């Protein structure tokens, strides 16, 4: 009898436990699924956040490097620009000074030309000036070469041109050398400057240099030979300069 009662009591309890078990099982499974989902979601978000932070740091460093490089390039460009502006300003200033100097020289040349014209007219009114050697300059050059500069002058009352031939002689005792000239003739109205170069023979030391003008009148003028310091930076090679020719006086 007692066993029957116990059996009757335990049977409803078992049914209740089974009912509760069946009711809570989905909840337990849901809780487990939610827990696992939370863990997976947290790991995924954290992992992605870590990757994002690392990627951001790398991009930021690259951006800083690019900006710094551009800044350096900009500084270099600004420096070059400032240098170019300074050079331009200096060039402009120099060109202005050069332009002013040229204008000044032109004005002085115009003034001197005017004065020379006045003097020539005064000379013409007083009978003029016959053909003459106004000046002779000899410039020593390297390799035993020399350059001459000869100024001739004539002021004719009737504006007659001076024409004729010229000869330069180097004299040492009884020995005479003729200086070679590209153009031995002259033809001018008031003033002429003749220039040229020649090579002196080795061992020849002239005492005088003589200028001979032949034309309507003959003019002979002798200058003492004085040698100065040689001029450097030849405009042409000494091998291209003609050699003086020896003659007997």
From TrEMBL:
Transmembrane domains' residue ranges: 24-45
Pfam families: DUF6776 (PF20567)
Keyword field: Coiled coil, Membrane, Transmembrane, Transmembrane helix
Entry keyword Transmembrane: yes
Superkingdom: Bacteria
Ranges in coiled-coil conformation: 60-94
InterPro entries xrefs: DUF6776
Identification of the protein by name: DUF3251 domain-containing protein
Originating organism: Acinetobacter rudis
């Amino acid at each position: 009898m007692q066993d029957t009662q116990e059996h009757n009591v335990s049977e409803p309890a078992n049914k209740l436990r089974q009912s509760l078990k069946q009711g809570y099982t989905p909840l337990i499974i849901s809780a487990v699924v939610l827990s696992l989902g939370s863990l997976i979601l947290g790991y995924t978000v954290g992992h992605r956040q870590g990757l994002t932070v690392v990627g951001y740091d790398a991009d930021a460093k690259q951006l800083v490097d690019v900006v710094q490089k551009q800044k350096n390039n900009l500084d270099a460009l600004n420096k070059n620009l400032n240098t170019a502006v300074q050079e331009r300003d200096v060039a402009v200033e120099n060109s202005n000074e050069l332009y002013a100097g040229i204008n000044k020289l032109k004005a002085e040349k115009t003034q001197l030309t005017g004065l020379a014209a006045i003097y020539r007219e005064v000379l013409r009114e007083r009978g003029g000036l016959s053909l003459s050697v106004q000046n002779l300059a000899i410039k020593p050059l390297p390799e035993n070469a020399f350059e001459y500069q000869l100024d001739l002058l004539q002021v004719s009352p009737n504006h007659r041109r001076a024409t004729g031939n010229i000869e330069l002689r180097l004299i040492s005792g009884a020995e005479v050398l003729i200086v070679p000239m590209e153009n031995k003739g002259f033809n001018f109205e008031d003033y002429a400057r003749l220039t040229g170069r020649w090579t002196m023979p080795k061992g020849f030391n002239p005492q005088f240099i003589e200028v001979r003008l032949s034309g309507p009148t003959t003019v002979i003028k002798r200058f003492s030979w004085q040698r100065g310091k040689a001029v450097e930076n030849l405009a042409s090679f000494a091998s291209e300069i003609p050699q003086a020719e020896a003659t007997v006086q």
